[in-house]
């Protein structure tokens, strides 16, 4: 099978193995086929050697979290994320990868009214019967959501899909922090309801490109686009590659993680008494390994908390991976166990995590995970911590 992989990208891997310690699935399995090096070897065997695409081969590609921790560890600068995305897209087109139920769930993300209706239904069920924590849902979803009003037009705040439906309180906190720094904020709302990141991960390339093009078209007025979800930000900064167009590249240059933006404008934030809390930083993979702006989270938080501490796991993935916790629940929990152990070793009061999937996945294991913008909002506005 021709996986459609770029020859230069595929040949960049020299099989050195320096990626192994950065790969969460290799760390918990010790299986070469669950490592970046092993997966690239399988890609070559299929594309160049005519190897059959067996269930075992598909499983190898399916167990990748796409955390891309291997990329900064690689001396050859292998763009493993792009190789895996193309491989999954080819397999999905052949009916070998993404299950039908996941396709249906992902379609809902592009339909804001349907997503909100589904959220209200789940919220009602939560009030009637306890739902398993393994589902990774917020403890109490809202029955209704108050729209976030615009306070100006300096910057867009990309609100997205699941995060807007389930964690709009994070967007509200982010908006208040930006306003405290003097920026007028325009939430994107239903105008750009989904960035397409989860569709890309699932191999649904056409759907991802259509969603990305809609975002680009509807926010095409030159304003900075600020993002408080690490996964969304990483996807949007890669629109040049995804869309393969000058328009996509120009749009990507306007996208900024909100911590990255505030770190460059730190002098505009007011002084405040630091929160009397010990806060551990959990770097979402798409902030650390893809956007590589994770230091900005520390820059922004440091003046506003008593004690900011680091984990000793060198940024290893938490195991959330968007829809990964649904399609690979066992491996997802095994990887999370490593992260929870690292958190317990430093004993924080709060864990700052700048990605909704990460925070929900960790919260399901009892971790007190909150968004960094919520911590900053509490310090600036005297809210309970």
How would you describe what is shown here?
The protein has 3 domains: 87 residues, Fumarate Reductase Iron-sulfur Protein, Chain B, domain 2 (Orthogonal Bundle), CATH 1.10.1060.10; 118 residues; 112 residues, Rossmann fold, CATH 3.40.50. Helix 10 crosses helix 22 and helix 13 packs parallel to helix 17. It is α/β, with parallel strands linked by helices and 385 residues long. 50% of the residues lie in helices and 9% in strands. The radius of gyration is 20 Å and the shape is globular. The strands form 2 sheets. A 4-stranded parallel beta sheet has the order 2-1-3-4. Strands 6-5-7-8 form a 4-stranded parallel beta sheet, sandwiched between helices.
The end-to-end distance, rounded to whole angstroms, is 54 Å
Categorize the overall geometry: globular
pLDDT averaged residue by residue: 94
Main sheet characteristics: 4 strands, parallel
Helix content: 40-55%
Question: What oligomeric state do the depicted chains represent?
Answer: single chain
Radius of gyration: 20 Å
Low-confidence stretches: none
Count of beta strands: 8
**H-E string:** HHHHHHHHEHHEHHEHHHEHEHHEHHEHEH
Q: How are the strands of the biggest sheet laid out side by side? A: 2-1-3-4
Compact description:
The protein is of the alpha/beta class and 385 residues long.
Secondary structure topology:
Elements: H1 7-11, H2 24-29, H3 36-47, H4 55-62, H5 70-73, H6 80-93, H7 100-108, H8 112-128, E1 155-158, H9 162-166, H10 168-180, E2 185-187, H11 197-201, H12 205-218, E3 225-227, H13 230-237, H14 239-243, H15 246-252, E4 255-257, H16 258-263, E5 275-282, H17 285-291, H18 295-301, E6 305-310, H19 324-327, H20 329-346, E7 350-353, H21 356-363, E8 369-370, H22 372-381
Parallel strand pairs: 1-2, 1-3, 3-4, 5-6, 5-7, 7-8
């Amino acid at each position: 099978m021709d996986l459609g992989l770029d020859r230069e990208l595929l040949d960049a891997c020299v099989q050195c193995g320096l990626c192994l310690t950065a790969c969460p699935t290799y760390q918990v399995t010790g299986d070469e086929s669950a490592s970046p090096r092993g997966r690239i070897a399988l890609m070559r065997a299929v594309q160049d050697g005519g190897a059959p695409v067996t269930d075992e081969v598909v499983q190898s590609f399916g167990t990748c979290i796409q955390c891309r921790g291997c990329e900064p560890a690689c001396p050859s600068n292998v763009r493993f994320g792009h190789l895996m995305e193309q491989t999954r897209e080819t397999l999905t087109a052949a009916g070998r990868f993404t299950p039908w139920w996941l396709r249906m769930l992902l379609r809902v993300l592009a339909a804001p009214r349907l997503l909100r209706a589904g959220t209200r239904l789940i919220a009602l069920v939560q009030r009637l019967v306890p739902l398993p924590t393994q589902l990774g849902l917020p403890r109490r979803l809202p029955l209704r959501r108050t729209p976030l009003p615009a306070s100006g037009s300096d910057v867009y705040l990309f609100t997205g899909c699941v995060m807007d439906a389930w964690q709009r309180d994070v967007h509200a906190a982010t908006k208040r922090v930006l306003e405290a720094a003097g920026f007028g904020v325009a939430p994107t709302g239903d105008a750009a309801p989904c960035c397409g990141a989860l569709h890309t991960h699932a191999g649904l390339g056409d759907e991802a490109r259509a969603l990305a093009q809609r975002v680009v078209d509807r926010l095409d007025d030159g304003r900075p686009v600020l993002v408080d979800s690490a996964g969304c930000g990483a996807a949007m900064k890669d629109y040049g590659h995804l869309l393969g167009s000058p328009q996509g590249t120009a749009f990507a240059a306007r996208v900024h993680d909100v911590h990255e933006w505030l770190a460059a404008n730190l002098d505009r934030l007011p002084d405040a008494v630091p929160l009397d809390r010990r806060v551990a930083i959990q770097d979402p993979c798409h902030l650390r390994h893809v956007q590589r702006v994770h230091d900005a989270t520390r820059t922004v938080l440091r003046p506003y908390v008593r004690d900011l501490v680091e984990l000793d796991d060198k940024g290893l993935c938490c195991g959330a991976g968007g829809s990964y916790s649904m399609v690979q629940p066992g491996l997802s929990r095994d990887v999370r166990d490593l992260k929870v152990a690292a958190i317990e070793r430093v004993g924080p009061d709060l864990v700052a995590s700048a990605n909704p999937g990460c925070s929900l996945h960790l919260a399901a294991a009892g971790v007190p995970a909150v968004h960094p913008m919520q911590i900053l909002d509490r310090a600036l506005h005297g809210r309970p911590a």
